[in-house]
Amino acid sequence: MNLVIKLAYGAAIAVLMVLTVVFAIRAAYEPPEEPRYGDPARAYKTAPAQYEEDRQDYRRNVFLIAGLVGLGSMAAGVALAKRLDALRLGLILGGVATFIYSFSQAGEDIDDIGTTAILPVAAVGLVALLLLGYRRLAEGDESATEGS
């Protein structure tokens, strides 16, 4: 497979992965319904506290789901065999884009979500990727040395 085809394949996997995650979450987990009032202008200016709380919970949960899927995808991309480089590229890029999506879903509620949800996801993901990456890079160095 030539380089252009591999890059296109990786990009296609990344895009389709993000779309799959986004629409799977939306299909399985609906956002809270915005309150409706008789006066439409008022509906956008005021929202009851329950709706705000439900929206915050929804955004936190979507952040956690998408963030963990993104981290899992990146870890899988790093862990796969070198001969599957195009697939690895797609999983890593798709994981990065999904992780970015998770933060975009948190939106302005990110301060309300707090570090309780964000820090563990980011820390576990970083440690897992560093360990997997180190292991894979060390394997590559050993096989390169053995071949000389």
Please characterize this protein's 3D structure:
This protein is mainly alpha-helical and 148 residues long. α1 packs parallel to α4 (85-106), α3 (49-79) packs antiparallel against α4 (85-106) and α3 (49-79) packs parallel to α6 (115-147). It has one domain (3-32, 46-147). The model has no long low-confidence stretch (mean pLDDT 81). The longest helix is centred in the last third of the chain and has 33 residues, at 115-147. Helices cover 81% and strands 0% of the residues. The protein is elongated and about 60 Å long. It is built from 6 helices and no strands.
Keywords:
elongated, 6 helices, 0% strand, 81% helix, mainly alpha, 148 residues
Concise description?
This protein has about 150 residues and is mainly alpha-helical.
Structural class: mainly alpha
Return the average pLDDT rounded to an integer: 81
Report the span from N to C terminus. Answer: 26 Å
Instruction: Please tell me what the overall shape is.
Output: elongated
Strand content: under 5%
Number of domains: 1
Rg over CA atoms, rounded to whole Å, is 20 Å
Low-confidence stretches: none
Seen as an oligomer or otherwise, the chain set is: single chain
Percent helix:
over 70%
Q: How many strands in all?
A: 0
Strand count, sense and barrel status of the largest sheet are: none
Q: What is the H/E string?
A: HHHHHH
